[in-house]
Specification:
Order of helices and strands of chain B: HHHH
Number of strands of chain A: 4
Strand content of chain A: under 5%
Structural class of chain B: mainly alpha
Number of strands of chain B: 0
Radius of gyration of chain A: 30 Å
Distance between the termini of chain A: 93 Å
Shape of chain A: globular
Oligomer: heterodimer
Number of helices of chain B: 4
Largest sheet of chain A: 2 strands, antiparallel
Number of helices of chain A: 25
Largest sheet of chain B: none
Helix content of chain B: over 70%
Chain lengths: 635, 107
């Protein structure tokens, strides 16, 4: 099978970015939008063709990784060569499908949502650029190429969060996202360097080979009680945690909602934030065989993040922020699933479940964000207290949003049920505590999603300035398509396609786990309905009775304040200020001393050049006499 | 050569040194251009004394020192002629012969 056409999947969006970016401002705006969208349509078709061709040709028992194209980029020595290439394996092909689908939906949706905005062409140029970077990230053949695209993705995220650059909050959010992820990427880079220093390779094929340098002969060198491999893998996970907004590096994601809503759907819900999950999944054999301890860390971090974010999501009033915390929580699920997974056959259930959840989550979370965008478009406000009763005005948005809420709550037979159920099964087999936490989070998830749903579409009608109306068809069609995918993507035979070792995995239905998880989800929905279906005073009563806890959750457990304290009080005051003082007084002072003494010395002797010949004769004569004396007495 | 027996070389060297420094001091201290010129003449003559004395005492059978002294005299004469004409011109321009007042390169 020849996959050389896959290079187009990377080249096309980059060309579109260059074209719109350089010429878009001269065209009529909708031309840029149409060019970007139709280009992405071609890319999506290519991705689907690739996926179809790849999954239909199974050689032997397992899917093999294919290098579709390879280009030697940098060649330092015979051993140290950095390639750029396209790697096709079940994981990357699945990601291609997810990214192109969501990106296409967001492109179509943006045609309506961003209509009439200043910077329409710039917006579509950035979208193409993001799509290019994200596709490049998932098809990277080596970790160095992945790092390059990793940073490009971060850059395009920065550009799109700061799209409304006249708004100070958007600029601050963009900076925050960039700095926090850059900080995490520092760990990622160090991890890459440690790993490749010890293995002499960047290629995923060699890194994850079970007879390869990392796994067959693990590095035995120790540093501070942990093996060097564990250090490398933990640092790499730090990069993934930054991008995937795991606690405590999650603080940038809720603020990133300052960007346009379709951008939040694409970047901060469906694709970029799952890059951390993708990274761990990509390097999973190393984690599993060489450093199982770091997998436990991943499981605990993911589990804690999912609980933590779910609790915060119950108290937030900005609907996009609720969705942002929900994203954190769901990514926590994916991390948990990876953390509890084994390798190969039945043990690899968690791995499969994690990517399955990534797959379904991309669709229903994009749908939620796009639905929220549609609502915001109609009422021009982000706060759920300013909404209510919108089901009458926005039927399509209402139905699709309801579908997404049911999906994320995990009610069968919608897709979220299947993927979440697999995760719970995997967690149950590995660690009962984590299972209990995830089971509880499933209930909280259902509660806060339906709190959102009832507050937007039911509850009491506030006074609207003008009657809300349904969004144009460019916005409702993507909602509809994504709703269909949210319902049916659970029936994709994922366990036969994307598994830890490429071999199909037999999964069975566990009613002992599925039934309680559905029950707690129903309980969450029921509680939300009781509190928010009609306007009543019960939510306030509950909030008052749990006042301290409610305030803490509403204030996001003061993590931002802790960060501000650490950066302002500790880093700025204790490190930056002394450093600045040293620079200003010692370093600059030395330079100033040299300069000033030269100036004053020359000021002192400049009077000698007076233009009066007799003085010159004096100097000359004294010099000659001095010289004569020196010659007389020193030789 | 009675002179040689009566006056040692040291005396002449001391004499020339004294004359030289008198001339030097004249150049350094006086502000009058003509006096400075006289100081220069004194210094030249001190050199001449040295030339003649060393030639006479160290190489009595050679004449280079004497010739040099003669050349210096000729040069000194030429120099005096030029210097005095310069001084006269300066006096016409500035109405003074004090070096302190003649401190402009352009007029």
């Amino acid at each position: 099978m020849d996959f050389s056409y896959t290079i187009l999947i990377l080249v096309l969006p980059f060309l579109i970015f260059l074209l719109i970016g350089s010429l878009g401002s001269r065209w009529r705006p909708h031309l840029s939008g149409l060019l970007g969208t139709s280009g992405l349509f071609i890319i999506t078709v290519l991705a689907y063709v690739t996926a179809f061709n790849y999954f239909i040709h199974r050689t032997g028992e397992a899917y093999q990784a294919i290098e579709a194209s390879q280009l030697t980029w940098l060649s330092f020595t015979d051993d140290l060569i950095i390639h750029l290439g396209i790697l096709l394996d079940p994981l990357s092909v699945m990601m291609l499908v997810v990214i192109t689908t969501v990106s296409l939906m967001v492109h179509i949706y943006s045609l309506g949502y961003m209509k009439g905005e200043a910077g329409f062409a710039r917006y579509f140029a950035f979208l193409s650029f993001f799509t290019f970077s994200m596709l490049g990230l998932v098809v990277a053949t080596n970790i160095f190429q992945m790092y390059i695209f990793w940073e490009l993705v971060g850059l395009s995220s920065y550009l799109l969060i700061g799209f409304y650059y006249e708004r100070p909050s958007a600029v601050a959010a963009a900076k925050k996202a960039f700095i926090v992820t850059r900080f995490a990427d520092l760990g990622f880079l160090i991890g890459i360097l440690i790993l490749s220093f010890n293995t002499n390779t960047f290629d995923f094929a060699r890194l994850t080979d079970q007879h390869g340098p990392v796994i067959a002969q693990p590095v035995t060198a120790m540093f501070m009680g942990l093996s060097v491999t564990t250090w490398a893998m933990l640092l790499i996970f730090m990069g993934g945690a930054g991008k995937s907004a795991m606690f405590p590096l999650h603080i940038w994601l809720p603020d990133a909602m300052e960007g346009p809503t379709p951008v939040s759907a694409l970047i901060h819900a469906a694709t970029m934030v799952v890059a951390g999950v993708y990274l761990v999944a990509r390097l999973f054999p190393i984690y599993h065989f060489s450093s199982p301890g770091s997998l436990d860390v991943i499981a605990y971090v993911g589990s804690f993040t999912s609980l933590f974010a779910a609790v915060i999501a119950c108290t937030q009033l900005d609907i996009k922020r609720v969705l942002a915390y929900s994203t954190l929580s769901q990514i926590g699920y994916m991390m948990v699933a990876l953390g509890v997974s084994g390798y190969g056959n039945e043990a690899g259930l968690g791995y499969m479940a994690s990517l399955f959840h990534l797959f379904t989550h991309a669709f229903f979370k994009a749908l939620l964000f796009l639905g929220a965008g549609s609502v915001i478009h109609a009422v021009h406000n982000n706060l759920m207290t300013e909404m209510g009763g919108l089901r009458k005005y926005m039927p399509v948005t209402h139905i699709t949003f309801l579908v997404a809420c049911i999906t994320i709550a995990g009610i069968p037979p919608f897709s979220g049920f299947f993927s979440k159920d697999e995760i719970l099964v995997a967690a149950f087999e590995h660690n009962k505590i984590i299972f209990a936490v995830q089971w509880l989070v499933a209930g909280i998830t259902a509660f806060y999603m339906f709190r959102l749903y009832f507050n937007i579409f039911w509850n009491s009608n506030p006074e609207y300035h003008h009657t809300p109306h349904e969004s144009p068809s460019t916005m409702t069609i993507p909602l509809f398509i994504l709703a269909v995918m949210s319902i049916f993507s659970g029936f994709v035979p994922f366990h036969e396609l994307v598994t830890s070792d490429g071999r199909p995995l037999a999964t069975e239905f566990h009613p002992m786990i599925a039934v309680p998880s559905v029950l707690i989800a129903l309980a969450g929905i029921g509680l939300a309905a009781a509190l928010y279906y009609r306007k009543n005073s019960r939510p306030e009563t509950i909030a008052k009775s749990l006042k301290a806890f409610y305030t803490m959750a509403y204030r996001k457990f003061y993590v931002d304040e802790v960060y501000l304290f650490v950066t302002h009080k500790v880093v700025f005051q204790l490190i930056s200020r002394p450093a600045a003082w040293f620079d200003r007084h010692i370093v600059d002072g030395t330079m100033n001393l040299i300069g000033n003494s030269t100036v004053s010395f020359s000021g002192a002797i400049k009077e000698m050049q007076s233009g009066e010949v007799q003085w010159y004769i004096w100097y000359f004569t004294s010099g000659v006499l001095l010289l004569a004396l020196m010659i007389l007495y020193l030789t | 050569m009675n002179l040689q027996a009566e006056i040692p070389l040291d005396y002449l060297v001391v004499l020339s040194t004294i004359v030289f420094f008198i001339g030097l001091m004249g150049v350094l201290i006086r502000r009058n251009l003509i006096t400075m010129l006289m100081g220069i003449e004194l210094m030249l003559n001190a050199v001449n004394i040295n030339f003649v004395a060393f030639n006479h005492y160290l190489f009595p059978h050679r004449l280079e020192g004497h010739f040099f002294a003669l050349i210096v005299m000729a040069i000194a004469a030429a120099e005096a002629a030029i210097a005095i004409s310069l001084i006269i011109n300066i006096y016409r321009q500035f109405a003074t012969v004090s070096v302190d007042d003649v401190d402009e390169l352009k007029h």
